Amino acid sequence: MEFLLGGASSMCAVLFTNPLDVLKTRQQLEGELIAKQNPTKRSYRGIRQSLLTVVQTDGLRGLQKGLPAALLFQFSMNSVRLGTYQTVDNLGWTKSANHPSLTPLLSVFWGGCAGLVSATASCPFYVVKIQLQAVTSGSYTARFQHHHNGTVSAFVNIYRQSGVRGLFRGYPASVARLVVGSAAEMASFSVCKQLFLRYEVFQESIVLTALASSTVAGFFTSVLMSPCDVVTTRMTNQAVSANGKGLLYTNIFDCFLKIYRSEGIHGYYKGFVPMYLRVAPHTMLNLTFWEFFKGLHEQWRI
């Protein structure tokens, strides 16, 4: 049940945040490996211009590109991630009664472990989501676009071209992304929740506590996860050879190095604003729905 609650909460959240995820993906791929000293005309500069570009080229439906894959990704990722974390939390492994100072470290450790497991379960859906979100009918400066006719078509095309390995393209980067993100999110959420519950106003409202805690958790998550997120997007969307090998990046370290050499530190934070605007409310909605569903489950079970 813990796994179903985690998956259901994330699917509710992504319905509201997928448009920002589309903007983030487009910004991360625009100007790929082009030195910032030699900028070309950018179609996705800033939130407002990015939003207008998507609507003008793909219509309002463009803001929800890749939504079925995003729903599958969020369910597979967060059902495992939140379910795993809640399970170990129920077992008392995220807290130390004898050494309270170790509790934050235990939260980071188990949050990272939950991220590792969830990355494995959700990687194929993430690959499909990114490739669908990157496609546009308008002028676009991404190096490559994968033209699929839909979510099912994307799975079939990727498997035919590269086999199972294609569905796990960028897996090491995806693991790093979710391990860092989950550790930051779950640890900061857990610590903030304990801090806020010291005050009476939060003790009277589960939703208010979840909102406040997840807002802080979303900030730390977006700051720490952005470099890994950019690398994962780039590796996932790159063109591949006939035998399924990436034509631009050979591995996660090669991708990090090429981005730094061409775009500098700035390259690691492309799409940061829509990422934060997405991660913060998504974290808030996800963890709020999670707390709400857990409360309903406890009430129903009783």
Automatic annotation (TrEMBL):
| Subcellular location(s) per record | Mitochondrion inner membrane
Give me the Solcar repeat coordinates as residue ranges. 1-91, 102-195, 205-296
Gene3D superfamilies xref list: Mitochondrial carrier domain
* GO cellular component labels: mitochondrial inner membrane
Keywords attached to this Swiss-Prot or TrEMBL record, sorted alphabetically, are: Membrane, Mitochondrion, Mitochondrion inner membrane, Repeat, Transmembrane, Transmembrane helix, Transport
Q: Show the InterPro entries listed in the entry.
A: MCP_dom_sf, MCP_transmembrane, Mito_Carrier_Antiporter
The UniProt entry lists membrane topology as:
Multi-pass membrane protein
Q: Which residues form the signal peptide?
A: none
Note the Pfam families from the entry.
Mito_carr
What the record says about family reads: Belongs to the mitochondrial carrier (TC 2.A.29) family.
Q: What is this protein called?
A: Mitochondrial carrier protein
Q: Which organism is it from?
A: Anopheles merus (Mosquito)
> Which lineage is the organism of this entry classified under, starting from the top rank?
Eukaryota, Metazoa, Ecdysozoa, Arthropoda, Hexapoda
